[in-house]
Design goal:
The protein is an alpha+beta fold and 734 residues long. It has 24 helices and 24 strands. The chain folds into four domains: 8-118, PAS domain (Beta-Lactamase); 130-303, GAF domain (Beta-Lactamase, 2-Layer Sandwich), CATH 3.30.450.40; 332-501, GAF domain (Beta-Lactamase, 2-Layer Sandwich); 574-728, Heat Shock Protein 90. The protein binds adenosine-5'-diphosphate. Adenosine-5'-diphosphate binds next to α23 and α24.
Length: 734
C-alpha cells in the first residue's frame, strides 16, 4: 500500500478536471465518489472492471451496489484515504468479478478519486511461480529420499508418504504390477481405512477402476469432482459419495518404457487438477518408478545373495550332518564293543554311563527293574567328577516313583521315552520334593533331559537317563534317536547277560542234581549186589541150580544199572572238572584184546565178525580204567550201529603217538550230525530204534582229551563209520 500526502482542494468533479473523452481512452479505470460514497463518475474501463454500467452506478452509494464493500480491503482503504486525507494504493481480490485489482485512492476536495487496474494476470503468474518453486523443492526432496530407499518396501513407504504430504491428499496408495501381469499389488498405503485394506491389497487389472485403467492405458485419470466420477465411472459414484474423498488422481508409474505400477492420491475437497498439479504428480510418479526399478535390481541382488548364502549354509549344514552321522556311528560301534565285552551287566552299565559322558550327556544314570518290580539304581556318571557326589545326593533324594506322570518312573512303567529339550527352573519348581532336594536339583542346573527305556523281548528292563547341565546344551530329536538306539543295544546286552546267567544257573542245578542223584543211586546198588552174592552163597546147590538163570539176569541188570550210574557220575564229574586220572604204563593192544574178549557175547548178539590183527604191544602212560572205558564205548557202538556187518579194529603206533581205529560197515552218520556227535546228550539216531543216553562219546572225548589226545570220526550214512583215537604215549602234558 502506497501512501502520499495530497493537498486538500475544493469539491469538483473529475469531468471538471479532465475532459471525459480523455478519461475514456486511458487504460486504467477511473471512478469518483462524493463524501457520501456515491458514484459521481466512471470511465469506460471502470465500468468493465467493476462489471456494471454508469447508468447502474452513478448516484448510488457503493455500499448499496456492492454489499459488504466496507469490510473489504478496498473499502477500508477508501475510508482511511478520506479521513486521513492521504492517497493510498492497495491490491486486493475483488470477489464479485473474480479479479485482482490494484486501486489507488486519491482524496480530492470532498471527493475521492479511485484509479483501478486489473492485475489478475500478474497476480496469478506470481502465485503459480511461488507454487512451482515450492513443488520443485518438494520434488527434489522426494528424489533425494527415494534414492536413499533401497528395497521395494522402503521406496513404497517413502513415495506414498511424500506424495500425500506434497499434494495435501488424504489417502495415498502405491501398487506394483505382479510378475504374472494380472493385477496390481499394494506395496504401501497411507490413510486407507482398515475395512477397505483387504480389498485394496490386490487390484485385478480387468477391474473397471480409475487406477487400473490408468495403469493399463498409461494415461493418468484426473477426477476432480463427483461430477467427473459420474461422467467416467458411473458405477463408482455411490461409493465415492459414501467416502470422504471427493477427488482423485490416478497416475501410472513408468520407467525405461516399462509400466511398473500406479499411484492413487485422493482428496477431501473437489480439485481442479491444473497443468502444474498434473505435472507435479506425474513427475512424482516418474521418480517413484525410477526408484522402484532400482529397488527391483537391489531386491534381485539381495535374493541372489541370500540364495548363494543359503546354498553355502546348506552345504555347511550337510557337512555337519554328515559329521554328526559319522560321529553317531562311531559312538554306537564303540558302545556296542563295550556292551559286548562283558556278560556282567553291572560292570557293563557302569562303563556305558561313563562312555555316554561327556559326549552325549553331562550326567547319565542307569536304573534297572528287578524281577520283583523294584527299581535298582545301577550306575551314575558326571562329566565333572567333583559334581558326582552332588548328583548321587540328588539320586538318593529323588527315588524313582513308578506311578509318576513324568520322567524315569513313567518310562519304566510305560516303556515310552521322555524327551524335554528345555527344562526350565519353573518346570523343576513344580516337582514336589523336600526343599533340601530342590536346592540340590537347582544347583545341578538341569537344562535338557532324555530318558529312554531298556526294552528286550517286549519287557522293560530298565532305563537310561541323560541330562545336560553344565554345558548348557539342549537335546534335539537326533539325540533322542541316538539314545534310543543305545538303549536298544544296552537292553539286548542286559537281556543276554540275564539269559546267560539263568542258563548257567540251570546247568549248575542240573549238574548238582546229577552228582547227588548218581551218588545216592550208587549206595543201594552196591548193597543190592552184595545181597545177591550173599544169596548165592547161602543157597543150597539144588536151589541155586534152579534159579541160576534168574540170578544171572539179576546180576546183568545190576551191572547195567551200575554202568548207567557210573556214566552219570562221570558226566557230573566232568561238568565240575572233578575227573581224575591215575596214570600208569598201559599196553593199548592188550587193553583192546581184553575188551574184545569181555565183549565177545555182545558181538555174537549183534552178529558182527570182529577183526583185530595187531599183536605188537603199544605201551603209553595212560589211565588203564579210563582207557578201557573209551575202548568199550567205541566197540559197543560199533556193535550197536554196525547192522551185523564186519568190524575192523587196529592199533598202530610210532615213537610219540598211539592210534586206535574202530571201523564198522553199519548205518553211518549224517553229515549234519557229525560236528555235535561228541557233545553231551547228543545223538544221531532216534531213541525208538536205538536206546542210549548220548553220553558215551562225550565221556570218551573228555577222557581222551584229559590224556592229551584227540578223537575223530569219518562216516557217511549207510557206509559205516570209522572212529580214530590218537594218544600221546607220554601221557598228558603237565
Ligand atoms: P549212545 O550210543 O548212547 O546214543 P554215544 O555218545 O555213544 O551215545 O553215541 C552218540 C551217537 O553217535 C549215537 O546215538 C549214534 O547216533 C552215533 N554213533 C555212535 N557210534 C556210531 C557208529 N559206530 N555208527 C553210527 N552211529 C554212531
Amino acid at each position: 500500500m502506497n501512501r502520499a500526502r495530497v493537498p486538500s482542494g475544493d469539491s469538483s468533479t473529475m469531468g471538471a478536471l479532465l475532459p471525459e473523452a480523455l478519461l475514456d481512452v486511458i487504460t486504467e479505470g477511473v471512478t469518483v465518489f462524493d463524501a457520501d460514497g456515491r458514484f459521481t463518475y466512471l470511465n469506460t474501463v471502470a465500468e468493465r472492471v467493476l462489471g456494471a454500467s454508469r447508468e447502474q452506478l452513478l448516484g448510488r452509494r457503493v455500499g448499496e451496489v456492492f454489499p459488504d464493500f466496507h469490510e473489504t480491503p478496498l473499502g477500508s482503504a477508501a475510508q482511511r484515504a478520506l479521513i486521513d486525507r492521504i492517497s493510498i494504493t492497495v491490491e486486493a481480490f475483488y470477489a464479485p468479478q473474480d479479479v485482482w485489482l490494484e486501486a489507488s485512492m486519491v482524496p480530492h476536495g470532498h471527493h475521492l478519486v479511485v484509479l483501478l487496474r486489473d492485475v489478475t494476470a500478474r497476480r496469478l503468474a506470481e502465485v503459480a511461480q511461488e507454487k512451482s518453486a515450492s513443488r520443485l523443492s518438494l520434488l527434489q526432496e522426494m528424489t533425494a529420499k527415494l534414492s536413499a530407499a533401497v528395497s521395494t518396501e522402503e521406496v513404497g513407504a517413502v513415495l506414498v508418504r511424500g506424495a500425500k504430504e506434497a499434494t495435501g491428499a488424504t489417502l495415498g496408495w502405491v501398487g506394483l504390477v505382479e510378475p504374472e501381469g494380472q493385477a496390481l499389488r499394494m506395496v504401501a498405503s497411507e490413510g486407507v481405512p482398515d475395512e477397505l485394506m483387504r480389498q485394496y491389497t490386490r487390484l485385478r487389472l480387468d477391474a473397471q477402476l480409475p487406477l487400473t485403467r490408468a495403469f493399463v492405458s498409461g494415461e493418468s485419470e484426473w477426477l476432480g469432482s463427483i461430477a467427473d466420477f459420474e461422467a467416467r465411472y458411473p458405477h463408482l459414484v455411490e461409493f465415492v459419495r459414501a467416502s470422504p474423498s471427493k477427488a482423485g488422481a490416478y497416475v501410472p508409474m513408468r520407467a525405461k518404457d516399462m509400466s511398473l505400477g500406479a499411484i492413487t492420491l485422493a482428496f477431501l475437497e473437489p480439485r481442479a487438477f491444473d497443468e502444474a498439479d498434473r505435472g507435479f504428480m506425474m513427475a512424482l510418479a516418474h521418480q517413484g518408478a525410477l526408484a522402484f526399478d532400482r529397488a527391483r535390481l537391489f531386491d534381485r541382488e539381495q535374493m541372489a545373495r541370500a540364495e548363494a548364502e543359503s546354498l553355502v549354509m546348506a552345504q555347511v549344514r550337510a557337512r555337519r550332518e554328515l559329521e554328526a552321522v559319522a560321529w553317531r556311528q562311531r559312538f554306537l560301534s564303540e558302545a556296542s564293543t563295550l556292551l559286548a565285552g562283558s556278560l556282567d551287566y553291572t560292570t557293563t552299565m557302569e562303563s556305558l554311563a561313563r562312555l555316554v559322558v561327556p559326549e552325549l550327556a553331562d550326567l547319565c544314570a542307569v536304573d534297572m527293574l528287578t524281577e520283583e518290580g523294584r527299581v535298582e539304581h545301577l550306575a551314575l556318571a558326571h562329566a565333572v567328577p567333583e559334581r558326582l557326589e552332588l548328583a548321587r545326593e540328588v539320586v538318593r533324594g529323588n527315588p524313582i516313583d513308578l506311578s509318576s506322570e513324568h520322567g524315569a518312573g513313567r518310562v519304566l512303567r510305560t516303556g515310552q521315552p521322555e524327551w524335554y529339550p528345555d527344562v526350565s527352573d519353573a518346570a523343576l519348581a513344580t516337582l514336589d520334593r523336600p526343599s533340601r532336594v530342590m536346592t540340590m536339583l537347582r544347583e545341578l542346573g538341569i537344562r535338557s533331559f532324555i530318558c529312554v527305556p531298556l526294552v528286550a523281548r517286549g519287557r522293560v528292563l530298565g532305563c537310561l537317563s541323560l541330562l545336560q547341565t553344565v554345558s548348557n546344551r539342549h537335546y534335539a530329536e537326533a539325540d533322542l534317536r541316538l539314545a534310543e538306539e543305545l538303549a536298544h543295544r544296552a537292553a539286548f546286552n542286559v537281556d543276554n547277560a540275564r539269559l546267560y546267567r539263568e542258563a548257567q544257573e540251570a546247568i549248575r542245578l542240573r549238574d548238582e542234581f546229577l552228582s547227588i542223584a548218581s551218588h545216592e543211586l550208587k549206595t543201594p546198588l552196591t548193597s543190592l549186589r552184595l545181597q545177591l552174592s550173599l544169596l548165592e552163597r547161602i543157597m543150597s546147590p539144588e536151589s541155586l541150580a534152579r534159579v541160576s538163570g534168574k540170578l544171572g539176569g539179576a546180576h546183568r541188570q545190576v551191572d547195567r544199572l551200575a554202568s548207567l550210574v557210573s556214566t552219570l557220575l562221570d558226566v557230573s564229574r566232568i561238568a565240575t572238572r572233578r575227573i581224575s586220572l591215575e596214570l600208569s604204563e598201559v599196553d593199548l593192544t592188550l587193553a583192546v584184546r581184553e575188551a574184545l574178549e569181555r565183549l565177545r557175547e555182545v558181538f555174537v548178539q549183534a552178529g558182527c565178525d570182529v577183526t583185530f590183527q595187531s599183536w605188537e604191544p603199544v605201551v603209553g602212560r595212560w589211565d588203564a580204567l579210563r582207557l578201557d572205558q573209551v575202548i568199550v564205548n567205541l566197540l559197543t557202538n560199533a556193535a550197536k550201529y554196525g547192522q551185523g556187518q564186519p568190524i575192523t579194529v587196529t592199533v598202530e603206533a610210532d615213537q610219540e603217538q598211539a592210534r586206535l581205529t574202530v571201523r564198522d560197515e553199519g548205518i553211518g552218520i549224517a553229515a549234519e550230525a557229525l560236528p555235535r556227535l561228541f557233545g553231551r546228550f547228543e545223538r544221531a539216531v532216534s531213541v525208538r530204534h536205538y536206546g542210549g543216553l548220548g553220553l558215551g562219546l562225550y565221556i570218551s572225548r573228555q577222557i581222551i582229551e584229559a590224556l592229551g589226545g584227540r578223537v575223530s570220526v569219518d562216516s557217511r550214512p549207510g557206509e559205516g563209520s570209522t572212529f580214530t583215537v590218537e594218544l600221546p604215549r607220554g601221557g598228558p602234558r603237565p
